[in-house]
Specification:
Blueprint (H helix, E strand, L loop, with lengths): L9 H21 L4 E7 L2 E9 L3 E5 L7 E2 L13 E3 L1 H10 L28 H7 L11 H24 L33 E2 L2 E7 L2 E10 L3 E6 L11 E2 L3 E5 L5 E4 L3 E9 L2 E8 L4 H15 L4
Antiparallel strand pairs: 1-2, 1-5, 2-3, 3-4, 6-8, 7-8, 7-11, 8-9, 9-14, 10-13, 11-12, 13-14
């Protein structure tokens, strides 16, 4: 009806029809594809969700490893703090929480009854209790442990460089070590770079999202400014100056530590070897919260090397 109570307003009907068609198009484009998203505090994942409009809206956390249905999760893809990840990256996070990620959504999962719309950037106390979420920010990085890890790596750096020059440009891993060797440049010495941050040698992997696929690469070292890893024999060609958009999920061993960085990474150098393609990527400008997450990861994963 028109505003004056007369005949139906044709224009109003056309607008409503257009709105309905837009909603149908949006639903159709998302139906059938399960999307995985992560919420992180200081780059440390604390909630993993999988959503598919209109029938899948489930999430788990470290303290709530059983899937919980929550219709409010359908809004999560539109939250600026949510980081979309691949299935491989999501499976790594779930494994750290003692869960094996299945391709199909969980059936008969308990439901969280909402009394207000979701605001994932500012969760209510009731939402935090339901998902067992405790802010990571309360767990401060131990400055003493971080200093000890960085000093030990700084002391070992000259020895590693000397070993690289004395063994034809490679650092031989110790017995039983799973760390790949550090490739040299064309002059037969270790790649020369300006080091603004101390690099910590860590055992683990980084899951790199590249288009529709995810590549898992062993870690060599990590710092607040970048990462050195080894690409396996995969059809991913890199050249200095290339930019990888991310996100990047770092997986520490043997601890169940995970780090999710959504900052871009620029390739600074690439070198092929028998073990694979060594490359170093420098991180784009991140936030202080992400730097704190890197420090926490270095303390957890780097200290394992002694």
């Amino acid at each position: 009806m028109s505003a004056l109570g007369g005949a139906p307003d044709v224009r109003y009907g056309l607008v409503c029809h257009a709105c309905r068609m837009a909603m149908v198009a949006a639903v159709t484009s998302q139906t059938g594809t399960v999307r995985y998203l992560v919420l992180a505090d200081h780059a440390v994942p604390y909630l993993l969700a999988r959503v598919r409009w209109p029938d899948v809206a489930q999430a788990i956390t470290a303290r709530c490893p059983d899937w919980l249905d929550d219709i409010g999760l359908l809004d999560l893809p539109y939250d600026p703090g949510a980081v979309p990840v691949s299935f491989t990256q999501a499976a790594s996070i779930a494994a750290a929480w003692g869960r094996q990620l299945a391709a199909e959504p969980a059936e008969d999962a308990p439901s969280f009854i909402r009394r207000m719309p979701a605001n994932w950037s500012d969760m209510t106390p009731g939402e935090r209790r339901a998902f067992g979420i405790e802010p990571v920010a309360r767990q401060r990085v131990s400055a003493r442990r971080l200093r000890r890890v960085l000093l030990s790596q700084a002391a070992a750096a000259p020895e590693l460089a000397a070993a690289a020059n004395g063994h034809g440009g490679t650092v031989q891993p110790s017995a039983g070590s799973r760390r790949p060797s550090v490739a040299a440049n064309r002059t037969g010495s270790a790649p020369a770079e300006r080091r603004e941050h101390i690099r910590v040698r860590v055992d683990g992997r980084v899951h790199i999202r590249s288009g529709q696929s995810t590549i898992s690469a062993p870690l060599v070292d990590l710092s607040e400014g970048g990462v050195h890893c080894v690409l396996p024999d995969v059809p991913l060609r890199l050249a200095p100056g290339d930019v990888l958009g991310g996100p990047f999920l770092f997986e520490g061993e043997p601890a169940a530590s995970r780090l999710c960085l959504a900052v871009p990474r620029r390739v600074s150098w690439v070198h092929g070897s028998r073990a694979g393609t060594h490359f170093r990527g420098t991180f784009g400008r991140g936030k202080d919260r992400e730097i704190t997450g890197i420090q926490r990861f270095l303390v957890t994963a780097g200290s394992r090397r002694g």
